[in-house]
Every structure is written in C-alpha cells, then in structure tokens.
Design goal:
The complex is a heterodimer.
Chain A (H helix, E strand, L loop, with lengths): L18 E3 L8 E6 L2 E8 L4 H7 L4 E4 L4 E7 L5 H9 L4 E5 L4 E7 L3 H6 L16 E6 L2 E9 L2 E7 L3 H12 L4 E3 L1
Parallel strand pairs in A: 2-11
Antiparallel strand pairs in A: 1-11, 2-7, 3-5, 3-6, 4-5, 7-10, 8-9, 9-10
Chain B lengths: L1 E4 L3 E4 L4 E5 L13 H9 L7 E7 L7 E7 L5 E6 H11 L1
Antiparallel strand pairs in B: 1-2, 3-4, 4-5, 5-6
Classes of the chains: A alpha+beta, B alpha+beta.
The structure holds zinc ion.
The site of zinc ion has 7 residues of chain B, from loops.
Chain lengths: ~180, ~90
C-alpha cells in the first residue's frame, strides 16, 4: 500500500496575501505574519497539580491559557510530536490535547501593533499591565482570542481556525489607517 | 458593568454568561422525603432588590465558573470569586 502524507494548509493561505496595504506613506505601522505550521498543544492540570505541571513545562514555550491551563507551542516539529512528548511527560499531572489543526496564530509586529489590538479588546496592553510573556483570553470582534505579548512591539493572536478568515478581514481593516504589510 | 475575574482581571460584562442565583444548595440525598427540598432547589428563586450572589461563566475569557456579588438595584459590583472557592466557603460555614 502506498503511504499517504498530508500537507497542512493554512486556512489563511489564499486570504493573507503578501504585500503592502492601507496608508501608503512612510513606514508601515504593523506587519502581519501567519505562523504556520505550528504545533499547539493544550495542557490542563488535574486538580491540585497546577504548580507541578507548571514546573514540568519549564523549557517549553508555554503560554498561560486560563487557571492551571496552558498552550504549549513549537515550530518545526513533526505531526503530533509535541503532543506525544507532553503526553508522556505529563502523565498523571495534566490532560493534554493536540490543537495544532484547530487554531491559527497571527503575529503582529510594529509600532502600531498595540494600537490595532486596542481597538478590539478591553485588556490593558500597557507594558506595565501586559509585559512580554503575558497572555490574556478575551474577545475581539466577537471572536474568542488568546493574546500574548511576545516582544516590546510584537504580539501573537491565536483564534479558532474556523474564525480565522473573518478575524483576518477585521484585523487588517483596523490596520489600514496605519499602513500594514503581510509578510 | 465591570467584573473583576480572579484569573483575568477586570473585564466587561459582555464577556460573561450568567446562570443565576448562587444561594440555593443542592440537596445531598434523593430520598423521597427530600422532594420538597428538590422542588425548592430546582424551581424556586427569590428576586431580590439589592445584593445578590450569582453564578457567572467567563465564557469570553478564561472559561472559569465564578460567583459575582452585585447589587441588582444600583448595578454596583462588589467582587467575584471562583465557584470552587465559593462552595468551599459555603461548606465550611455549614
Ligand atoms: Zn476570567
């Protein structure tokens, strides 16, 4: 029998077209990238195992995603590899599930990234309240989002795959006044 | 209304789904003699004007169940705790 392999296709492949858009004078305010393909695994600690799970996740890119819950992210891992690794490591401590195909992560970088996001969320994005590494769960344009500050001027926004196209249309429209590029 | 979620910080009421009064306590037996208590628990609710404690789900945020205390007359919000802490405190009192 022939072995079949599937190439993962980003749901934004035909939507997030590269180029410069919106205000066309001066430097761009925001750059968008779709982080694809990503390994995204949800970890939910069992009752009373929050601290032990957090300790076991040291060294991973683990982002807070609710009380005793995390999204663990990785690039360049094989299909299901991160899930299997965490499942083995966290047995008994936490429930682990692979969300890699279910979510899309959009990265915003640039001096106006915060201004774009602030149009959609009541979360205080000032660096004193929302420092690098901090995550929040909130809604933007009626879509549930997981938002993380990954740098002084850069943020990751993770949304369910099925909402990604309408979310993309909304967020790029918010960036038009600043001028944006899609990389 | 702004709700102080213990996990997420202050968030607008639009991010929450309210379930209702947190005062009724679920009967611990299903013995036929407890039917009156079940009837009360399932169907009967007060409709207070003033302070109330209500279950709220942070559905547009961390998805935790909370108990929010607020004033139905003035819309003042006094605070919010996790439903887990709320029921632990309730058990401790009982
Ligand atoms: Zn919350």
């Amino acid at each position: 029998m022939t072995e079949r392999t599937f190439n993962r296709v980003s749901p934004l492949q035909d939507v997030a077209l590269q180029g410069r858009f919106g205000a066309d004078k001066g430097a761009v305010g925001v750059s968008f990238t779709v982080r694809h393909p990503m390994s995204i695994v949800t970890v939910i600690a069992r009752a009373g195992q929050g601290a032990a799970t957090a300790a076991a996740l040291k060294g991973h890119d683990a982002q807070w995603a609710g009380s005793d819950q995390w999204f663990v992210l990785a690039e360049n891992r094989g299909e299901g590899a991160l899930y299997r690794e965490l499942k083995a490591k966290l047995g008994g401590l936490a429930s682990v599930s692979d969300q890699s195909h279910g979510r899309v992560i959009i990265r915003l970088v640039g001096p106006r990234a915060r201004a774009v996001l602030a149009k959609g969320t009541p979360v205080d994005l000032h660096p004193d309240a929302f420092p690098v590494g901090k995550s929040a769960l909130t809604q933007m344009a009626h879509v549930g989002v997981h938002l993380t500050r990954v740098g002084a001027d850069s943020y990751d926004v993770s949304v369910f795959r099925g909402f990604s196209e309408s979310f993309w249309e909304w967020i790029t429209e918010q960036a038009e006044e600043f001028g944006y590029q899609v990389i | 209304m702004l709700i102080p979620c213990p996990h997420c910080g202050t968030r607008p009421v639009e991010e929450f789904t309210f379930l209702g009064d947190a005062a009724p306590t679920r009967p611990t037996t299903n013995d036929p003699s407890s039917m009156e208590a079940w009837y009360e628990y399932v169907y009967l609710r007060n409709n207070p004007r003033g302070p109330i404690e209500e279950y709220a789900h942070h559905s547009g945020g961390c998805r935790s169940w909370l108990v929010v205390s607020r004033n139905t007359e003035t819309h003042e919000v006094f605070g919010a705790v996790t439903a887990r802490d709320f029921s632990k405190a309730k058990e401790a009192k009982a």
